[in-house]
């Protein structure tokens, strides 16, 4: 679910008002916090703000479902160190998340670069970390047909480090499916990978 800020409705609004509503919003925001949107340093800020929001919410992941036949079905595949930036939906402040994606392959393997594309696709929208890892795990299951899938994310949230208790802390969330959801070899293997990472 992503908000399309670049659709025909928006263009119609722009034409009608002669102004970009996102730019107007940014100018209003600057005024509300006691700034002068016309001063030198801020003159181009509303346009940059509008461009940034469109870029962020219109991320194109390209092809995410390139599969290869494999003769080694049943092997554990762990892809770690996938770094994404997302926006916390409660505060509209960024959080970064380092993701580890693990699955036991069925008949087909997913191309390595596709994990990052899937991760970025879900990160480029308003999120909470728990849903980010859950959404990625659903996609991996759907695309690969694998039942044993785990996604673990470690994130640092600016809404924690910049406001509130103003301390740096990392939060871990995980979505564990199939054999990863139960105590056993596969789960132990994943946790060994995470400790080593
Ligand atoms: Zn937040």
How would you describe what is shown here?
This protein has 197 residues and is of the alpha+beta class. The protein has 2 domains: 8-57, GTP Cyclohydrolase I, Chain A, domain 1 (Orthogonal Bundle), CATH 1.10.286; 67-196, GTP cyclohydrolase I, C-terminal domain/NADPH-dependent 7-cyano-7-deazaguanine reductase, N-terminal domain (GTP Cyclohydrolase I, domain 2, 2-Layer Sandwich), CATH 3.30.1130.10. Helices cover 40% and strands 25% of the residues. The protein contains 7 helices and 7 strands, in the order αααββββαβαβαβα. It has helices at residues 8-17, 21-32, 45-57, 112-123, 129-144, 158-161, 185-196; strands spanning 67-69, 76-88, 93-104, 108-110, 126-127, 149-157, 170-176. The strands form 2 sheets. A 5-stranded mixed sheet has the order 5-2-3-6-7. The chain has a two-stranded antiparallel sheet with strand order 1-4. Helix 2 crosses helix 3 (45-57) and helix 4 (112-123) packs antiparallel against helix 5. The structure holds zinc ion. Zinc ion (ZN) binds at residues 88, 90-91, 93, 157, 159.
């Amino acid at each position: 679910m992503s908000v399309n800020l670049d659709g025909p409705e928006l263009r119609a609004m722009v034409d009608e008002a002669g102004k970009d509503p996102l730019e107007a919003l940014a100018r209003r925001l600057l005024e509300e916090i006691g700034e002068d949107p016309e001063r030198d340093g801020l003159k181009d800020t509303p346009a940059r703000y509008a461009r940034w929001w469109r870029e962020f919410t219109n991320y194109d992941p390209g092809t995410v479902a390139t599969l290869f036949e494999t003769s080694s079905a049943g092997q554990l595949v762990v892809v770690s160190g996938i770094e994404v930036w997302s926006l916390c939906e409660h505060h509209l402040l960024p959080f970064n998340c380092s993701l580890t994606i693990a699955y036991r392959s069925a008949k087909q393997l997913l191309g390595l670069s596709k994990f990052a594309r899937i991760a970025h696709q879900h990160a480029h929208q308003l999120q909470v970390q728990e849903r980010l890892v859950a959404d990625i795990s659903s996609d991996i299951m759907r695309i690969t047909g694998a039942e044993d899938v785990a996604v673990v994310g470690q994130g640092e949230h600016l809404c924690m480090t910049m406001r509130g208790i103003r301390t740096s802390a990392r939060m871990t969330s995980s979505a564990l499916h199939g054999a990863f959801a139960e105590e056993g070899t596969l789960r132990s293997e994943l946790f060994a990978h995470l400790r080593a990472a």
